Amino acid sequence: MFFGKKDRKKDRAQSPAGSYDPASQEAVLRCSICNGEQVAGFRDKKTGAFTEVMFIRSSADLQEFRSQYGISGEIKKIY
């Protein structure tokens, strides 16, 4: 047993998927110009604060994000 170390898989499995409030948040993809990485998450409409939800590696990951939160239509990309 090591002090200070967490089992991240265990934490991820127990934590809820999170909540999405369309009235105060918008679904966005944060994209890197340099290497093309994409992270799906939600941006607060008032403050602009971004909350990461999942790393997007393929179109299947993006589809999973959409179905998990009930998102339809175009997802805005921010750089």
Please write out the topology:
Blueprint: H1 8-14, E1 25-31, E2 38-44, E3 50-56, H2 59-69, E4 76-78
Parallel strand pairs: 1-4
Antiparallel strand pairs: 1-2, 2-3
Tell me what the structure shows.
With 79 residues, the protein is of the alpha+beta class. It has one domain. It has helices spanning 8-14, 59-69, and strands at residues 25-31, 38-44, 50-56, 76-78. The protein has a 4-stranded mixed beta sheet with strand order 3-2-1-4, with helices on one face. Strand 1 and strand 2 form a beta hairpin. The termini are far apart. Mean pLDDT is 83; it is low at 8-16.
How would you briefly describe this protein structure?
The protein is α+β, with helices and mostly antiparallel strands and 79 residues long.
Tell me the strand order in the biggest sheet: 3-2-1-4
Q: How many structural domains can be distinguished in the coordinates?
A: 1
Give the distance, in angstroms, between the N- and C-terminal Cα atoms.
41 Å
Q: Helix/strand-derived class?
A: alpha+beta
Instruction: Report the major sheet.
Output: 4 strands, mixed
**Low-confidence parts, pLDDT < 50 over ≥5 residues?**
8-16
